[in-house]
Amino acid sequence: MPEILADTDGMLAVNKPAGLIVHSDGRTEEPSLAEWLVERYPALADIGEPWVSPQGEKVRIGGLAHRLDRTTSGVILVAKTPEMFAYLKGEFKARHVGKTYRALAYGHMETDSGRIVAEIMRSGEPPKKWYARPCDENDARAAITDWRVLERLESAGDPVSYLELSPQTGRTHQLRVHLASIGHPIVADHLYAPGRPSLGFSRPMLHAYSLSVSFNGKRREFIAPLPDDFLRAL
Questions:
Q1: How far apart are CA 69 and CA 11, in angstroms?
Q2: Cα gap 87→213, rounded to integer Å
């Protein structure tokens, strides 16, 4: 179940569990974070512009200011007013929101920290996924991810790196694609590490650990504690 981390100053910070879609995709009928939010905060039904599915269905987003992949757990911000929704969308677009993720990646990183700069391109062949193409950091299409090693681990003889990831941009599947592009895909990522051993995990081991944003003259940080699968791994 989702968890409310904070309810303050016109916004909510919510801890989304892995496996829960943020809002309906217009193709399947299943519970979503947006529905869970509107059930508890009915006024959120009218916050944010509805997402229009490929089938033309208008889907309420329940004030969600950004998204996480279905398989990614962690903190997500929700606006409680139209004004806060517009503000948060602007802060994300301007890259003023600080984002930190935790991940388990295959192999031991060769250095203790680094930066990945590569454009995220869409593959034209099924299954639908993305790939990285190196580019200059000043390129308008550049996606940028900073990373550092928190710990080097072993799992049944397989080397694994426990990483802190700080995306400076917000592209689709950015962290998953960037890590795969340097030969260290996220553990149990069926899309970007096909054929690799899952090491006992049922989803890509990626967690949105913290978000920081400025409002009312203060910088606030919201942290989603590590989920059980990460705790068991560590």
A1: 21
A2: 11
Helix, strand and coil in the chain, % to nearest 5: 15, 40, 45
For residue 203, pLDDT beyond 70: yes
Answer for the pair 64, 33: CB distance below 8 angstroms, yes or no. Answer: yes
231 phi and psi angles, rounded to 5 deg = -60, -40
The mean pLDDT value for 152-177 works out to 93
In our burial notation (b when 16+ CB lie closer than 10 A, e otherwise), range 180-190 reads bbbebbbbbbe
Among the residue ranges 30-34, 114-118, 171-175, the one predicted with the least confidence is 30-34
Indicate the pLDDT class of residue 40, thresholds 50, 70 and 90. very high
**What residues are labeled active site?**
69
Residue in this structure with the two tokens 């004004």, named with its chain if needed: 83
Give long-range contacts, CB 8 A cutoff, 24+ apart: 55-61: 55/26, 55/27, 57/24, 57/26, 59/23, 59/24, 59/26, 59/34, 60/23, 60/34, 61/22, 61/23, 61/34
For residue 144, the Cα-to-chain-centroid distance in whole angstroms is: 14
pTM: 0.93
**Helical H segments across 100-234, by residue range:** 174-181, 228-233
Ordered structural domains, the chain, with CATH: 1-94 (3.30.2350.10), 98-211+226-234 (3.30.2350.10)
The first and second tokens of residue 234, run together, are 């560590």
DSSP tag of 225: P
